[in-house]
C-alpha cells in the first residue's frame, strides 16, 4: 500500500513536470455546453413549430413550420452527438491516465524481475531515468 502511494505521488510529479497546458480542454468544455444547450433548445424549437403549424389553416405557413420543426430535430441530434462525444472524452482521458499508470507499474515489475532489483531501482538501472513510460531522449537503454 505504501509503495502504491509512492507510485501515485511519483506519477503526479511526473505529470506536473511536463507542464502541459491543454488548450483543447477549454474548447471541449465549450462544445460540451453547446451540446447541452442544443439538447435543450432543439426540442423546444420543435414543440413551438408544431403549435405554429396547428394554429393556422394556411398551407404555406404550415409547411414553413414543418421545416422549422425539422430544424429543431436536427439541432437536437447534433446536440446529443456533441454531448455524447465530449462527455465520453472526459472519461477516456481519465481511463488513459489510469492505463498509463498501470502499464508503468507493470513495466517496473517486469524490469525488476529480470534484473533482480526492486521496482524503483530496476527502472533507474534500465536507463529510463526513473520513468519506464517516457524513457530517455534517445529511447530506453539497457546497461550490460
SSE inventory with pairings:
Blueprint: H1 2-18, H2 23-54, H3 59-115, H4 119-125
Helix pairs in contact: 2-3, 3-4
Radius of gyration: 27 Å
What's the shape? rod-shaped
Secondary structure tally: strands: 0
Q: What's the main sheet like? A: none
Structural class: mainly alpha
Strand content: under 5%
* Overall average pLDDT: 79
Give the distance, in angstroms, between the N- and C-terminal Cα atoms: 32 Å
In words, what does this structure look like?
- This protein is mostly helical and 144 residues long.
- 78% of the residues lie in helices and 0% in strands.
- It contains 4 helices and no strands.
- Helix 3 crosses helix 4.
- It is rod-shaped.
- The relative contact order is 0.10.
- About 11% of the residues have low confidence.
Summarize this entry quickly.
By secondary structure, the protein is mostly helical. It has four helices and no strands. The chain is rod-shaped, with a radius of gyration of 27 Å.
Protein traits:
about 140 residues, mainly alpha, about 0% strand, rod-shaped
